[in-house]
Amino acid sequence: MKYTLLLTTQYFMHEFAQKELSSFNITFDVLDEGFYEIICDSKKDFLDCIITILHYSRTLTNVYLKIGESDLKLKNFSFEKGIFEDSKISKFGVAVVDDDINKKILSLFSNNLRKEYDLVEGDDISFEVFDEEEDGYIIVLDLFGFDLTKRSYKLREFEDSLSPIVSSYAMYLLGLDNEEKLSILDPYAQLGDLSIESSLFQPRVPLFVKEKRQTTLAKLFTLPLGVPKKISDSNKLMAVIEGGETFKFFKENLSYAGTKIKVSQFDFDWLDVKYHKGDFDYILTQFPYFDSLEEQREFEEPFFYQGEFVAKKAICVITESEVIQEILDKHNLVVKERRELDTDEGEQYLVYVISHKEKA
Q1: What string of DSSP letters covers 55-113?
Q2: What's the chain's Rg over C-alpha atoms?
Q3: Among residues 85, 80, 52, which one has the least CA distance to residue 67?
Q4: In angstroms, rounded to a whole number, what is the distance separating the alpha carbons of residues 38 and 46?
Q5: Which helix (H) or strand (E) segment is 226 a member of?
Q6: Average pLDDT of the segment spanning 289-302
């Protein structure tokens, strides 16, 4: 039998989600911005695809298995055969995905599902119904039951911690997926939202997902044990943390991530003392929130002075404020990329890629 997967991401990641899927040698169709379809011809192909996505994707948010569909009038239903043949699932519920789907529609789907698969109502799994507008409705299973950007290594987080999908966006924008060896300094590392995530990014480290055994996927199919083997790397990664409790929390997250980053405790004003010119290819960091323009200026002046000295290729910053252009001019820096991100969680960021001005 064939297995149809529906994949989603946040809209700003659309370009890089396609690039990532292609790098996995997965054939897919774009249904809409941030919405993709994969058709697998066998259970083996399906499991290979889904395990690859679970452990290696840095761009996708949710993965659904298509179970059935109907027309708009809910007269004609069709369902995939054999989905539950080898599973232990006997109970189900139906959840709403689109707000305009009413109880009558859910009831009709529920009745047809019960007849088709000989299931009773319960909480083993939960089917979800999508409204395809002009085409009708589709019913799906969320194979993981959680956002794929969730990270098991994040034992500690701050309220303003970056989502890994925003971190990954910055890395793709920098072109780090094309680098054989990463050389990155995060001089304002906090809890490692960027530095730890970059250590998992290239070469792509398989993620440990502690919830894997509790997913709908695991209830439907026998999954391979453990995590794919990590590829060794020669990355040069450094995180600078001012110290105190933040340093302790960073080390906890780093230990659980199972990756290697050198960590130092000092103020980034000392970067030109600690390092030589061009010691790192990239600086990748998140700016703090500024209460005033004066506070922003006091932060950015030493940052870009130090950054111009230490970063050989580019500086990438994620911030909530426009960088101060006159400071960039003063240090012979130029904006190569400026992207505005509005996340599904309601957060807004500016992502800058800044490099040295070319000599005339």
Answers
A1: HH-SS--EEEEEEEEE-TTS--EEE-SSTTTT----EEEEEESSTT--HHHHHHHHHHH
A2: 23
A3: 80
A4: 9
A5: none
A6: 94
Tell me how far apart the alpha carbons of residues 244 and 162 are, in angstroms, rounded to a whole number: 20
Helix (H, G, I), strand (E, B) or coil at 26: coil
Token look-up 């909530």 returns 320
pLDDT, one tens digit per residue, over 129-175 is: 887 767 788 888 899 988 899 898 888 888 778 999 999 999 999 99
Amino acid occupying residue 138:
I
Say what angle helices 14-23 and 164-174 make with each other, to 10 degrees. Answer: 80
Lookup result for tokens 């005339």: 360
pTM for the whole thing?
Answer: 0.92
Residue 268 CB-density burial (10 A; 0-12 exposed, 13-18 middle, 19+ buried): buried
263-266 long-range contacts, CB within 8 A, separation 24+? 263/189, 263/238, 263/239, 264/238, 264/239, 264/240, 265/240, 265/241, 266/240, 266/242
Closest listed residue to residue 46, CA positions, set 88, 4, 89: 4
Q: How many CA atoms lie within 13 A of 111 on its CB side?
A: 9
